[in-house]
Structure formats: C-alpha cells, structure tokens
Fold:
Amino acid sequence: MKDQRVARQNRRMNQKNRANRQMGTDNPTSQLPHVLQIVGYKNSGKTSLVTSLVRHWKALGDDKISTIKHDVHGFEVDQPFTDTWHHQKAGADMTMIQSPERLGLFATSSERTLEELVAVTQYLQQPSIILVEGFKQASYPKVVLVRSDEDIHKLSTLQHIIAIAFHTEKDRAQFEQQRDHSTQFRRLRQTPTFLYQQRESGANTMIEWIDLYRKSNFRREGVKGELHDTSELQCDHCTVKD
Structure:
C-alpha cells in the first residue's frame, strides 16, 4: 500500500515537472521579470510616467516590456459586432484572438490579484520588466506620485515605497517636515523624494533615478522584486533628498 502511494506521488511530481517545462517555468527564479509599480491618486501623472519609461527602455533596446493597468471603473476593449464580440455575447467565459502580429484576450471573471496577472504575463510574454499602473495595495516595489497635500497622509497606508514624487516643492517640503518629526512616516525617512512635473525635464529626472534603481537594486528572487536600500543612489541631475 505504501509503495502504491509513493508511486502515485512520483507520477504527480513527474506530471508537474513536465507541465513546468512546457510552460517555461521549471526554473522560475531565474526567469521571473522585474516588476515595478507606478501608483498615485487621480491625475497624478501615472500614465505619463509609465509611457515615458516604456519609450525610454525601448529606445535602449529592451525588447520585451509589459504593462498592467488597474481600472476601478470598468472598461470595454472589444469592438461591437466583431467575431470575438459575438463569442463573448454568446456566453464564452474567455476568448482569445491571434493574428500574425497581435494577441488579444477577453475574459469575464472576478477581479484577479496582481500576482496572478504577473504570472499570466510572464507565461505569455516572458518580459524583462513589467510596469504596473495602480494596484496600490500590492506588495511590489513602487514609485508613488503625489499631486496635492491631501494625498500626503495616504502614504502611510502603502508598502514597499522606493521613491516619492511631488508635483510642488511646497508639498514635498511639507512631507519631509512631517517625515522628520512624526512616527507616521518613520519608515519613509530614508526614501528619496523628487519634484516631478509632467514636462520632459521632470520625467527625465525620474527615469534616470529609476534606471539606477533597476540596475542596482532589482533581483529576480521569488515573484516579487527584491527591495533594497535606495537612499544611497545618486545621479547627476536627480533632485533627491535623503
């Protein structure tokens, strides 16, 4: 009886290993992409920074960059009366469409965790980095954009912040004063802060620092990017206060 149980366990293990090899996940630690979140509140410049980073890394020759966006309002991406639209209207729970140059996926489901979406992206694309817009409560390294002083107190609710960018010097100074004298922001006292506007110079400052972070701090370990101290990172034009 014991031998039969061991044999069944071995068969299940072999089946799992074969599936992992077929999916390219038999050695997941060495293949997992870097994941970086860009988070903030309404009209803080998240999309502008994400698209600037994508263009920047593409220009440098990064051939596989993926993005994931969280939308709390609901959305429609398929076009009415197309074949895939008819599939969905007929009741298909998931529909995929493949052309020579593009892949589309439409699914009706409960909201997925960011970890699940990262796993799907990794399987379909094997990107070198995944940029995530939103998912504030997820536990990947994140850059936070602060548009107004009303957003400052919300920083204490977020985890794994590697940098904070403010739209005004006034808000930045207000936060740094609170950070130095309040237990609420004690864990952020070594977190670099930036002055960020959505014009080119502001975006370049952020991109330069994120480049340094990516090169010196990301490690492919587990599913999440390894978080290291960022207070010592320096760049020629970054307006960073330690």
Observations:
- Residues 2-23 form the longest helix (22 residues).
